[in-house]
Amino acid sequence: MIRSHLRSAFIFLSLGALLFVSACSGQGGADAGKPIKIGLLASTTGALESYGKQTVNGFQLGLEYATQGKKEINGRKIEVIVEDTETKADVAVKKATKLLEEDEVDILVGSSSSADTLAVLPLAQEYRKVMIVEPAVADSITGSDWNRYIFRTARSSSQDAVAGAAAIAKPGVKIATFAPDYAFGRDGVSAFKKAAEKRGAKVIHEEYADPKATDFTANLQKIVNAKPDYLFVIWAGANTPWNQIHDMKLAERGIKISTGVPDIAALKTMQPLVGMEGFTVYYHTLPKNKVNDWLVSEHKKRFHSPPDLFTPGGMAAAIAAVEALKKTGGDSTADKLISAMEGMSFETPKGKMTFRKEDHQALQTLYAVRLQKGTDYPAPELIRELSPDETAPPIQNKKK
Question: Which domains does the chain have, with CATH numbers?
């Protein structure tokens, strides 16, 4: 009899232990207590160095903001491993493979270059890891080269195009475009052309330059010869064409300039463009919300400067990752994250973003602006906010 009671007690305790383990497994399972590793790919050297550093700073600040300084979810610490792609696609693949195989990261984030990012996208699918794309913009990332593991907090070329066209495209207006000759530039021009012609304008000339060029004289002369009403410029990197555009006196030849307003370093070369109307992804004085207020305040404290063009994108990517992990209870497996992230809305320095279910592109606010004279450089003045619905790009992927 005593043995029977002891056996029943043992079974009861064993069942209790199993239930306890089962309950714990619902909050991270075998991974409970293990760190959540995020691999951040960025150009921290090379032509897009400033963009990469902005993204890294924004991402670290975003983790801090979204976790109230704890940098953990359900007892799992968040570790960030930064790798420099050097703005070279082959290096990006090598670094991403290292993050996935050696570091065993749970989530990938990046990168600064569209070419780097496109090279890495297949790895996300191969290793079944969610990748949050920031700040690369090529349409093909959430279009022809997309897979179900890809989410993008960065805006796309098509979102830029809608905003750029809203600033200058009208019936009868003739436009020339100028862009670097790679995915970022060509996707940008293709999207802008569609958006501008939808508004009745006509793109009469497309000019592409070597992304590493420093002399654009021949390119700009072809644009002058085409005699457009506007020149719409798409550019990224330190080798900007603004000084040569000024030296060749395009404005005096009756050609108005329009562009997406770049980072602060490039703004310092744009004194001749005061009065220009265009659009911007972000400028620190434009958004009016508590997330941006926190970002501006903290960035000034830590870096003695305001956040720049790609800082809020890095922050948005971090907030998206944290909000998704909160929804999964700290479970970092791809299927759980994808289910949580599809259709998910989250607050960022640019206001609310939403991952569209169909292609995982974040719908977001952009800004129609006019460059006004500033103390150190021309500063964007808000004309109006372009809402997430207004700038929503066409769905270009075949869901897979």
Answer: 31-155+286-364 (3.40.50.2300), 158-280 (3.40.50.2300)
